Amino acid sequence: MDLTLSDEHRQLRELARRFTDDRIVPHATRWDREEAIDRELVPALGEVGFLGLGIDERYGGSGGDNLAYCLVLEEVARGDSAVRGIISVSLGLVAKSIARHGTEEQKQRWLPGLTAGTQIACFALTEPGTGSDAGNLVTKAVKTDGGYRITGRKVFITNGTWADVALVFARTGGPGPKGISAFLVPTDAPGFTATEIKGKLGMRGQATAEITLDDVEVAEDALLSTEGFKLAMGALDKGRMSVAAGCVGAARGALEAALKYAGEREQFGKPIAGFQLVQELLADMAVETDAARLLTWRVADLADRGQPFGTEASMAKLFASEAAVKVANNAIQVFGGYGYIDEYPVGKYLRDARVTTLYEGTSQIQKLLIGRALTGVNAFI
Ligand code: CAA
Q1: Residue 156 CA: which ligand 1 atom is closest?
Q2: Which of 115, 226, 210, 229 is CA-nearest to residue 166?
Q3: Atom 52 (ligand 1): residue with closest C-alpha?
Q4: Residue 75 is a catalytic residue
Q5: Topology (CATH level 3) of domain 122-226
Q6: pLDDT one-digit tens code per residue, 149-182
Q7: What is the pLDDT of residues 352-368, one digit of tens each?
Q8: What is the residue with the minimal CA distance to atom 31 of ligand 1?
């Protein structure tokens, strides 16, 4: 499936394709087994510009629009969704929030390292007691003479143990979304502890952490916004687009693997690709993948034209994440028993896809957001 892409977009996609085939695909199974991506990959992603997409060149960025970002994420996720997640969080949720809301000093301080991949960022919103209900988070930031003292716990934080800077959401005011501010917290600040969560079902190469902030003192200039909840929601709108783009890549990877296998594997004296029920599995996979891509590119197109895209991002994220699970599951069906062992990539596609219906807003949250936009009625309260 393809729409008309500019030469620039095609070249970028080709670069991402080659990078994925050379630097990601050969290692993805090992990273998954060892529960750790090679750390050197991050500056390599920076060198090819994938950590600077959409960021101004003045801060080490590589420019490009939202479609360019989606094209790269699709390719990278075809190789390894865990790598895609590193980009989505460090660049998509954090660096882009700094670029959008930061002071000149904050941009100068953090963006060159993040775009080069010599530094990594994490997005610390979720807490043990507030996942979907992010507006009720309880981490506190109390004003001090020279800045703020932050205390609280965060959980399921992608890049948590690798990060140099954490975008921490903490309560500076009253209850609910309005009382939340956003802070850029250096992770080497005394009292900041990140503990890796091991034994995840998928995305095992990513460093996912539980974070404790125990009276962490930050200077005044660590404050990124006093409208922290709105900043988080705005970042997550684009984040949902990026998860959707990653899901398209994972679904495509599963489909390509299943097509290849179905053409080679013989049963009853012929390749299984010739059986109607196998073709049904493959056809369903292709339709889901292409539909997910079109929904995702619609979000990118709206965002690139400066139009509202939040509801469309929820639609794309909902559809693409559920599609990635279904497509990977079908791929395992095509592979039969071989799909159940990690010598082949399809089991990993399913395990990695599973979290995408949970994070950056569950499928249920996306449905309620879409429902609210359609009806004007808020079902959250
Ligand atoms: N952009 C800007 N502002 C927004 C916004 C958006 N997309 N969405 C809401 N707001 C504003 C609203 O306008 C409102 O402001 P006003 O009162 O001034 O009008 C304010 O924010 C509160 O909005 P809501 O009433 O919609 O807030 P809510 O409490 O009802 O929250 C929710 C709704 C949709 C459930 C929200 O809490 C949510 O999205 N929950 C899911 C949380 C989530 O996605 N977590 C992901 C964790 S991060 C992660 O997974 C990253 C990782 O490491 C992989």
Answers
A1: 53
A2: 210
A3: 158
A4: no
A5: Butyryl-CoA Dehydrogenase, subunit A; domain 2 (2.40.110)
A6: 999 999 999 999 999 999 999 999 999 999 999 9
A7: 999 999 999 999 999 99
A8: 135
